[in-house]
Amino acid sequence: MLVYGKDIDETALVREMGAVVAASGAAATSPLLVPALGWNPLIALPLGGLTASAITRMIGDACIRHYGGYGGESKSIRIPVTSPVPAA
Question: What DSSP designation does 7 have?
């Protein structure tokens, strides 16, 4: 299978796939650390969300760098700014 013209079925990518699985597992188990550390259980929900978001972002950025072929600079989207419409 090709992604951005690169073969993703090669066996050299097994390490990378293992790293993605391990990072995802670490993100999924982070809320379980809250009771083990004796913290307030209400912290588990935001901790899980923030950890999952951070891991997803890191994996996505690494994949875009690897498969997208750019050197890490961010591709920004220009959104035209319009003046607000005055109320009638």
Answer: E
The domain of 62 spans: 35-69
> What is the domain count for the chain?
1
Q: Give residue 75's pLDDT.
A: 53
| 7-39 tens-digit pLDDT | 666 676 777 788 888 888 888 888 898 888 999
Provide the angle, in degrees to the nearest 10, between the axes of the packed helices 14-29 and 44-68: 160
pTM (two decimals): 0.58
Domain membership of residue 23 (yes or no) is no
pLDDT at 27: 87
Nearest to 60 by CA among 35, 29, 27: 27
Q: Which of 13, 9, 24, 25 is nearest to 60 (CA)?
A: 24
What one-character-per-residue DSSP string does 24-63 give?
Answer: HHHHHHGGGHHHHHT--GGGHHHHHHHHHHHHHHHHHHHH
